[in-house]
Design a protein that fits this description.
10 helices, eight-stranded parallel beta sheet, about 40% helix, alpha/beta
């Protein structure tokens, strides 16, 4: 999963960059629109453009309303967002809802929602390593810390790693039990997002 960051686009067209990240079917398999201080209308416009252009699912960080309005595949939630189990009844069947998990307490809260119809479709666990992309991410978990939290996920809920992941560290996270990885700078800060995404995908698959 490649997560957008308006700063790292550095004036480049976001749709073009994301298109390169998923090019050829051997790069990113999902895009998450993360634009914390973006005006809702701008976030909606970007999301609609990505949904119309990309052959992979597009999620929206925090904003379920924008995800629904844009026809996105789902949304990613944090603990300051409306509760996932309360939202589930108001979104279409098949609409993905992911949740961030960074501590044992958050893992316990997420795991407590065990009803299949209300639980998260995936957990995003991190930060696995130190990351400059999220100032409030908390201390790095490392592979062992990732494993400890991932084991708390309900059966059948995939867990992806996030935070400081590169082609070099992706195999460590996959080896710790991740179903996949989410990245920001490793792809968006690269001069060639397509090559960076392919390298990451290959590293994750080899693990």
């Amino acid at each position: 999963m490649v997560i957008t960051d308006p700063v790292l686009f550095k004036g480049r067209n976001p749709v073009a960059v994301c298109s390169r990240a998923v090019a050829g079917g051997s790069g990113a398999t999902m895009i998450q629109v993360r634009w914390k201080d973006g005006a809702p209308a701008d976030v909606l416009q970007l999301t609609r453009a990505l949904v119309a252009t990309l052959p992979v699912p597009v999620l929206v960080n925090d904003r379920v309303d924008i995800a629904l309005a844009a026809g996105a595949a789902g949304a990613h939630l944090g603990w300051d967002d409306p509760p996932l189990d309360a939202l589930r009844a108001h979104v279409p069947a098949g609409f993905l809802l992911g949740i961030s998990v960074g501590t044992p307490e958050e893992a316990e809260r997420a795991a407590a929602v065990r009803a299949e119809a209300a639980s998260a479709d995936y957990w995003s666990v991190g930060p696995c390593f130190a990351t400059p992309s999220k100032a409030d991410a908390g201390p790095p978990l490392g592979p062992d810390g990732f494993t400890a939290l991932a084991r708390l996920a309900p059966a059948g809920v995939p867990v992806i790693g996030i935070g400081g992941i590169t082609a070099a560290t992706a195999p460590l996270v996959m080896g710790a039990g991740a179903a996949g990885v989410a990245v920001i700078g490793a792809v968006l800060a690269a001069s060639d997002p397509e090559a960076a995404a392919r390298e990451l995908r290959a590293a994750a698959v080899r693990a």
